[in-house]
Prior knowledge:
11 strands, 8-stranded mixed beta sheet, 266 residues, 3-stranded antiparallel beta sheet, alpha+beta, single chain
Amino acid sequence: xxxxxxxxYDAVPRSAARxxxxxxxxxxxxxxxxxxxxxxxxxxxxxxxxxxxxxxxxARQRELGAPEAFEWVxxxxxxxxAAVEASGLVVHEHPLMVLAEGAGTPGALPEGVTVRMVGVxxxxxEAAVAAPYAAFGATPTPGxxxxxxxxxxxxxxxxxxxxxxxxxxxxxxxxQTVGTVSEVVGVGTRxxxxxxxxxxxxxxxxxxxxxxxxxxxxxxxxxxxTVARMYARLxxxxxxxxxxAEPAEPAEPAEAAEAAEATEPA
Length: 266
């Protein structure tokens, strides 16, 4: 399973980024406008990672004006954490969860709430894209809705949202498929609509959509152990630990990317 996920992690940024190789590390550099990417272990690398390699990547990120961010799976590349921390970055741990076969059924929705997929021509797309940003106290980056629209049109992303009776988007999230593997990302609920199970309902809709398209492995990274327990109610099980490293005081672009990628089903 971890090898399957590692292959996915290496493949998914390549639809919108170019890869620059730094020995045991690969830096993904965004092509054009949009969320910045990160560095991660080179696919297939199983040895140690030096502090020098980490610092070389960080120097290139600074040169590009990109966040000094690294993402990887602790159990797959155990030697990277020491090098990253030695370079001065702070490491955050997130439960890496995979959906069990046959799981993913949501509870009943609150009265007046509907959950559906949002397509390219849907007038609610912009509001759906904005909902997860509001969940983390952020505003969408310029052109965010257009970027999601383009990714949906290209078959790279699927978007689901929960709406109240007036059509207001209360919660939303996405899944991104490569082959038969898809990751649920960016699930968030507006603060005023929390504690109603909307994030889990959106996640269940994304799971159903992925399975209908032939996906056999659905996974996500939960914000923390508390959120992981919520996802467990849908049948997700923790299989490893996803790690994100960044400076102690991340720059604004990194914060925007984190808000866009975080998976919080409040």
